[in-house]
Amino acid sequence: MFASLVLLGLLIFFLVYLLKPQRPKNFPPGPPTLPVLGNLLHLSTDDPLKDFERLRKSYGNVFSVFIGPQPAVVINGLKAMKEALVNKGSDFAGRPQDLFINHVTQQLGVVLENYGTTWREHRRFALMTLRNFGLGKTSMEDRIHEEIQQTIKTLEKSIGSTLSPQVIFHNAASNIICQVLYGKRFEYNDEMIKVIIKCFTDNAKMTNGPWAMIYDSLPILRKLPLPFRKAFKNYETCKNIAFDLLKEHKETKVPGEPRDFVDCYLDELEKKSADSSFSEERLAGYSLDLYFAGTDTTSNTLLTGFLYLVGHPHIQERCQQEIDLVLEGKDQVSFEDRNNMPYMQAVIHEVQRIANIVPFSVFHATMKDTELMEYSIPKGTMVIQNMKSVLTEEGQWKFPHEFNPENFLNEKGEFVKPEAFMPFSAGPRVCLGEGLARMELFLTMVTLLRKFKFTWPEDAGEPDYTPIFGLTLTPKPYRMKVQLRSKQ
Ligand code: HEM
Predict the structure, then answer these.
(1) Ligand 1 centroid – CA 67 distance (Å)
(2) Which residue windows are transmembrane per the record (predicted)?
(3) Total of domains in the chain
């Protein structure tokens, strides 16, 4: 009896040992792992940012965690981030290929495409097209201004009262990217946009939640009719909508006279050979990618910006003084004007720094066996950037933990951008929409601050700046009071 118990004990011990994920030799350190679960119990789904900070304190700027059986290296701080993303950019420019989200999106887009020819050709094409000259007669700046006029109309309806800016900014960002992609805007209550947003929000929640973890950790369950199947259906619905828009474009387009991104891609498709990486299916996936990558990021940055500006009226007023001075006699602001507005530039950058909109960037993967800060990292390892660790790193900022535009101003009041400012990430995978996003943020914030004064409602208590965690960080819902400014 005793011998059987000892044997059983030994068997369990070996099973646990064998099933327990093991760190390869000279791999970055991290917390002890459990069989199957890895380090999932060390990471909360509500706010893993705090867990990462705790683990960073224990294990240093480069540590590892197991998401189920999958090892992931977490990079913190400017030094490690630069070594990985810039100095060894091509080693670290891959994307994990076997996660829930890869399977849901059928490897169609570009955001999750691995580092290789398809990614390179598509990235180059988008960068060219998104530059002002790529999009035909209407420049990017005009498209953005058209949408800001719609935002102004909506805000004007609330003058003297309070409103929640969430839907307004979301619609503005959504319509700007729709103007770029499809050459048209959609009304606030458009059924098609509502379906796309619902499918996307549900999928984002699922990607962050336990079902995606189960899918990733236990491949054996992937084909079963479990709740994660809904995400595949949602993506299919979005893809069909993208195909309908594509069909409409094919029927109405004039060759050589592109109206928007989709027309440009269709023109390109005609020029390409049969074995090219360009295809209608990829165009559908690509347009969805750009839509999602460009909507929540920009709108949540604007939401965070106005939250801080109503909470810091003296900063809002200083922006308005600069805007009035620089734009005196001008009908509308242009992106060029930013060069004469150091304070406004500093405020927008400070908003982006404090907002930390994409807290873990998009996961990277190593393309070959490589090294980081003297640790060995095998090919195919998942790499997670902890963006907050750089955006609030002590030693890199004058005021790392407070909202203060002085972080971006020198003694002469000139605008300066510290190296640790990387909300768009860095290296070969740096955000493809950075130019568009910066233009949107500048033109929107300046135009709205020139026309309106935004204040915190007297009866709303104190502003709560704690964000809600997700693929993007979102401010808690808030209301603000809108008044017309007298001096413009
Ligand atoms: C304030 C707004 C934005 C922020 C903070 C932001 C941030 C980011 C970050 C951190 C990444 C991941 C980079 C990496 O993997 O290292 C990324 C990737 C990307 N972003 Fe943005 N983004 C913003 C707006 C936009 C817009 C407007 C577009 C649309 C045109 C866009 C399109 C993309 C695409 C396509 C990628 C994938 C690039 C690649 O994999 O090569 N983003 N963005």
Answers:
(1) 24
(2) none
(3) 1
